[in-house]
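On to my pick:
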Amino acid sequence: MASVDPPARRGLPPEAYEVVPGREYRPYVPAGKSMAEFTFKAVLVGVLMAVVFGAANAYLGLRVGLTVSASIPAAVMAVAVFRVLRRGTILETNMVQTIGSAGESVAAGVIFTIPALFIWQRTDPTIVVDLLQVSVIAAFGGLLGVLFMIPLRRYLISREHGRLPYPEGTACAEVQVAGDVGGGKARLLFSGLGVGALYQTLANGNGLGLWNESPYVPLPQKAQLGGDFTPELLGVGFIIGPRIAAIMFGGSALAWLIMIPAINLWGGDSIVYPADAPMSSLASGEIWSYYLRYVGAGAVGCAGIVTLIKSFPTIVESIRLGVGQVGGAVGGEVLRTQRDLPMKLVLGLAVLMAVALWLWPGVPVGPLGAILIVIFSFFFVTVSSRIVGLIGSSSNPVSGMTIAALLLTSLIWVALGLNDGSAAAKVAVLAVGAVVCISAAAAGDTSQDLKTGFLVGATPARMQVGEMLGVLACAVTIGFVLIVLNESYGIGTVDGLAAPQATLMSLVIDGVLNASLPWTFVFIGIGLALVVEFVFKLPSLAFAVGVYLPVSLMTPILVGGLLRRALTRKYENAGETEDGASVLAERREQGVLYASGLIAGAALLGVVIGGAIYAVTWFTGDPGAASVWQLGHAWMDDLVPFSSWVVGTLAFAALCWLLWRAATREGHS
């Protein structure tokens, strides 16, 4: 087979998108070619990115309940870094994005579950959150996800090549092999990052707070419409697209424009459980907190289970092939591009971690919990690894899998009489769900990254080690990030970081263990999800997340989705570029890169501001000392009522224009 010179290729070969046997696919870097890959500088840059993207995704997930895959931004930044250094191979670039994106996936799994400890801690001081506890749970969950994905690689990545599109994994490969990726595309990402960071500094109420970034309009019967006009929410909307954004907004609009007024009228002056005050005295946010969260919990739980049931054939097939790979040796010569970590090592590490989870007192799961963790983790790793091949990591329904694991674990705890009403029982159930959630998220990212490596010609075994390094790097730091964000903003509070997914997990555990769920509202949510899924034929999980989250978060996401729709309408018949690429695809990629920069910049500055507040408070002992830099916008409203709302809306409109300009401007390719 003739050797292919990588720099001469401007894109992946056509076989990257065709159904061909994996062993016949010729990767960008041939299997017989020796090239620097697992080097010190690649590992160092990758670890730094894992920490940075992990922190940014933690902030984003705690704020809106959604996370965005960091694979594509990490790939672009890796290319840019090595171009600045003027040295680095494509396989080193791939190693950087592999390690960097692993941190993001661990953070996603952590923020969906672990923040429940902070929520419980406010009412039960016996629950203590410490860095070591969070780090161990994050490390074990992430490592199990990587290890359990390894036996599935030959089937999902190689044998199913062409049948599973792996949208993000393929996009990362395109970014890495494109000869012109380091110029305009890198500038797009970094300019978006700068704009997002600047906007966050000026608008964030904990920053300068120069204008009101969350204007709202009160409506009759406590209905409410408004928006948290921030860069990260606009970017999320553009990336997920108009359909999902509209469905999510529809769920939130139903909750805040129809259900809150209906509940308010129904309750009148009565006290309705679980509130302890008359309905007529409750504000919109309190009605949402006491009642709509349970409706959303029922809807999200039902939608997640429906998603799993629909995936059942995939689950069975993946498990069957995964178990078959455990003891199977592949005949013939093993090419460099097909070389995995030894299966004995994989199984040995998995067993060792299960025993450690059982024996380590910081995760009080006991032998039963350790067994459940291993069973549930392998089960949902197979689901996650296959689903991302179809729809990508950002749309992977990890929260639905976690809810299913928590429900089953809680019911097992109750059935076996392990629920003694203590905080330890709640923490044990949460620990099981947390490890399962993190393992599913890490497996999805590993699956995408291994597809990227398959296309460019990386060595799977080295990538698998890189994934583990990224997991450990994020695990070491994510606990500190959570503590800083909790002290600075307040995790699980209406006015702080709502932590919707973790709040939902805490409601599920408390409700099952204490038999205190207000089932009427839960069943309303279940009914909504079933109607949306089977009557209207819409993705119920997206709708359910909209019901669960405040409408103020969904409004800017809808705006971002509509911008994406307008871009599609403008360029859908624009033909192809001189290089033969679709003009629409090129413009869409430009917008996604800029939107990714907005998200990363705003999220990172949110973490930086939180860290500054935490540091000032710690050094001075005065919680209000950090307010010295918060100029605020009260003076503006004193001069002209509601003028800060107008300024905030205009600033957000300018942000939308910048995103549109970045997506439509020529010369970035």
User: Anything to note?
Assistant: The chain has 24 helices and two strands. Confidence is low (pLDDT under 50) at residues 1-11.
